[in-house]
């Protein structure tokens, strides 16, 4: 797209009113109008706004609201702006993504949520944004990503999770992205434990998808308490994890053992009860002999 020449004050105000730009975004130094096919883009950046200004043109396709103090995306935002293809939400104060945030975002292809305060990604966080091609989540405070966080994102090609607080990441979350071509994981405090072994194996198989290579990703060795790049590790580094059990596996084994023990006790009690009842109800041999003598 090409940016329009700078408008005069009167022309700028006329354009604002015609496009329906939010009052908070008005002013030649705070908003911009672009010629994009087929609809214009709107920008409202670096204003320190505490919430998403409203309304923008309903047919806007590219929206730039970076550099504000916005803490949440309204639940009905994409219901009104369902034509959005590009949303730049960088450098705001988002702390979480509520359920249903992206309902109605069927056309959204590029989403930039980097430089926010996100801490967790729940299951189906982007469920309705099935056409996303690029998702930027770098430079947040992400400490956990649910294994179903990226479900339905079958078109996603670029995922950026760099510079967060991730110690581990479920491979299932990445396996849900069949079109993935580029993945950034650098800048996280990865822990080289047995939970990381599965992710390390995935990374080795998909090294071509890492734009900065294995050297850019580091993890901490639990025993030696030092950080090493993944380029220095191999499958042998996690050999002791092959026969280790996860916490879930231990719970399953313990539960199974307890269940079998309870079933055995119940079966023994039932069998003993049946035997005792049989002994009480069945006539003894001595009694039968006495009855035969009396008959003689």
TrEMBL record:
Chief place where the protein resides: membrane
Record field: transmembrane: 250-275
Record-linked Pfam families: LRR_8 (PF13855)
Lipid bilayer topology: Single-pass membrane protein
Keyword Kinase: no
A single GO BP: potassium ion transmembrane transport
Keywords, in A-Z order: Cell membrane, Disulfide bond, Ion channel, Ion transport, Leucine-rich repeat, Membrane, Repeat, Signal, Transmembrane, Transmembrane helix, Transport
All residue ranges annotated as the LRRCT domain in the record: 188-242
Cellular localization per UniProt: Cell membrane
An example Gene Ontology CC term for this record: plasma membrane
Name of the featured protein: Leucine rich repeat containing 38
Organism: Oryctolagus cuniculus (Rabbit)
Gene: LRRC38
């Amino acid at each position: 797209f090409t940016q329009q020449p700078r408008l005069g004050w009167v022309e700028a105000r006329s354009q604002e009113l015609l496009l329906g730009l939010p009052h908070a975004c008005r002013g030649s130094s705070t908003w911009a109008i672009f010629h994009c096919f087929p609809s214009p883009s709107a920008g409202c950046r670096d204003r320190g706004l505490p919430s998403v200004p409203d309304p923008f043109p309903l047919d806007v396709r590219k929206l730039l609201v970076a550099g504000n103090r916005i803490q949440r995306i309204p639940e009905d935002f994409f219901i009104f702006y369902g034509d959005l293809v590009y949303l730049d939400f960088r450098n705001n104060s988002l702390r979480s993504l509520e359920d249903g945030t992206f309902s109605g975002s069927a056309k959204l292809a590029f989403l930039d949520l980097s430089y926010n305060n996100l801490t967790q990604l729940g299951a189906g966080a982007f469920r309705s944004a099935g056409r996303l091609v690029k998702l930027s989540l770098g430079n947040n405070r992400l400490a956990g990503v649910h294994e179903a966080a990226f479900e339905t994102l079958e078109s996603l090609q670029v995922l950026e999770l760099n510079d967060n607080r991730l110690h581990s990441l479920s491979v299932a979350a990445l396996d849900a992205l069949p079109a993935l071509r580029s993945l950034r994981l650098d800048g996280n405090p990865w822990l080289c434990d047995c939970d990381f072994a599965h992710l390390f194996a995935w990374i080795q198989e998909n090294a071509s998808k890492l734009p900065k290579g294995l050297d850019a990703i580091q993890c901490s060795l639990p025993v030696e308490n030092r950080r090493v790049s993944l380029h220095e590790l191999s499958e042998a580094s996690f050999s002791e994890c092959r026969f280790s059990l996860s916490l879930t596996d231990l719970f399953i084994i313990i539960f199974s053992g307890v269940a079998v023990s309870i079933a055995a006790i119940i079966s023994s009690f039932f069998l003993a009860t049946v035997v005792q009842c049989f002994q009480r109800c069945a006539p003894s041999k001595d009694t039968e002999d006495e009855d035969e003598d009396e008959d003689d």
